[in-house]
Amino acid sequence: MLQIGVTGKPNVGKSSFFNSATLSQVEVASYPFTTIDANKAVAYVTTKCPCTELKITCNPQNSKCVDGTRMIPVELIDVAGLVPGAHEGRGLGNKFLDDLRQSGAFIHIIDASGSTDEEGRPVDAGSHDPLEDVDFLEHEITMWLFGILKKNWSRLIRKAQAEKVDFARIIHDQLSGIGISLEDILEAKRSIPTEYHAWEDEDMQEFLAVLLRIAKPMLIVANKADLPTAEENVKRLQEKYENVIPASAESELALVKAAEAGLINYTSGDSDFEIVDPEKLSDAQKKALNYIKEHVLNKYGSTGVQEALNTVIFDLLKMIVVFPVEDEHKMCDGKGNVLPDAILIRTGSKPRDLAYVIHTDIGESFMHAMDARSCMRVSSDYELKSGDIISIICR
Ligand SMILES: Nc1nc2c(ncn2[C@@H]2O[C@H](COP(=O)(O)OP(=O)(O)OP(=O)(O)O)[C@@H](O)[C@H]2O)c(=O)[nH]1
């Protein structure tokens, strides 16, 4: 399952985001849709399920379909301990290395209302500038990686020159513990004109910062957007950074809980909710719901939590969703389950890549693929599109 790290200073709303994204869960066949351990839980990304367009009833196995929206599980990892200065030994260690290796991308939660200082201590709303919090995270991880690489650098240079080994491979070996590919290293190197052996510390740091952006893309969640002091900061953040989603994790948590209690109809990502029976709500509950409607939903279009998850997977990691089936006529698997699986796969993938994602054996015995909508064979260099229903024909 795809893994996303959720990180940020203390008190910015990480737990609220984590809980709201992972709370409303129904057991689905082979996945434990509950908290995996203290700092891991399953959340969903959403896409249109083809069942509506095809007017068929689906029986999802690896995912869930709610009113034509397919919910695909991803794993959230709660990455704690990142505070300014953490790379100097105040917080990063093997646990962080492990989280970093597993995370394909990061959600960086910041307090857009400016009511927590640089270390996460509560201060008067608006008195801290949240823009200062954005860069520290990249800086901390970069400096930490720098520490790892720099430690052996002179020895590595000698080794590369003596053994005539490609430097990119040596760096790859050094950083193998954090899940970075050789391709990522080669791509990052293109933006550093100096040759490896002549690198100064600044070149190495610049290289690592670029590498991090390529290998572990980061989404900024401007949380606490419901508070009045957040509005201006959200605008400034969006002007300065590319991937910024305004959010109110606390509002999402309240809405999900109210929906679970049967007080409102609401699905994560919705731009509105519907009160089931006004008689059942206390005055305080009505007031809270009105506040969320006015200051979050009407202003930003949603609470931002579902949008953040979808943006990480579909925009930052450039994934698409493909529905593999065994029988292209009935659009089902061997057991008759219609549209059983929704698979997240990289944009640009071909049918054979899909076969490998399903199972190595299927990849190895791949012959060709059929498009189940047209029942026509697709060429092996066909680029899969999101929503494709594909049957793999094996030898
Ligand atoms: N107004 C507002 N407050 C929020 C929001 N999200 C979280 N909070 C509040 O911010 C405080 C911290 O929230 P948490 O979710 O515990 O933050 P955290 O980042 O997990 O904190 P640590 O566990 O200390 O790392 C709590 O008082 C929350 O109620 C939000 O969207 N809007």
From TrEMBL:
GO terms for cellular component: cytoplasm. Residues 2-265 form the OBG-type G domain. Transmembrane segments: none annotated. Pfam families: MMR_HSR1, TGS, YGR210-like_G4. Keywords: Nucleotide-binding. PROSITE patterns: G_OBG (PS51710). GO terms for molecular function: ATP hydrolysis activity; GTP binding. It comes from the Archaea. InterPro entries: Beta-grasp_dom_sf (IPR012675), G_OBG (IPR031167), GTP-bd (IPR006073), P-loop_NTPase (IPR027417), TGS (IPR004095), TGS-like (IPR012676), YGR210-like_G4 (IPR013646). This is Translation-associated GTPase. It comes from Methanobacterium bryantii. The gene is ychF.
